Amino acid sequence: MTGKYFINDTNIWDVYGMFPPSGKDFYAQLLKAPIGKEGLTKNWPDQNGTQRSFHNIEYEDRQLDLPFVMYATSKAQLLEQYNALSAFVFANEYMSFKCVDLDVLFTLK
CA-to-CA distance for 53 and 26, rounded, in angstroms? Predict the structure, then answer.
């Protein structure tokens, strides 16, 4: 598990004992295509139709449900890992998530 998933360059297996469960569509959630926002349009009064700009395509934010398993050898270790992760998540508005298998870096909020 080590070296496969990183949050802000932190190996989540080594620090938090976390990994995604197999068979839970983890990669499908990560790779789900975003919905595109409607671009700029101009409806000229003296012409039929609309003029559309396709230069700056933007996308809607996505809600992801990413399940993880947190492994620990004792209840005390599990609570320590969980509290450390919670403190980290609440202290950072944005974080990067790197999945080495996909060779992709995601920015999460």
Answer: 35
Cβ contacts of 90 within 8 Å, gap of 6 or more: none
For residue 81, being part of any structural domain is answered with yes
Token readout for 11 is: 């190996």
Domain assignment present for residue 53? The answer is: no
- Does 59 map to a domain? no
CA 70-72-78 angle, 5° bins: 75
Domain that holds residue 71: 5-35+65-108
How many structural domains compose the chain?
A: 1
pLDDT band at 1 (very low <50, low <70, confident <90, very high): low
Determine which helix (DSSP H) or strand (DSSP E) holds 91, and give its type and residue range.
helix 75-91
Higher pLDDT residue, 23 or 59?
59
CB contact at 8 A, 70 and 16: yes
Q: Is the pTM of this model over 0.85?
A: no
Q: Is 18 inside any structural domain?
A: yes
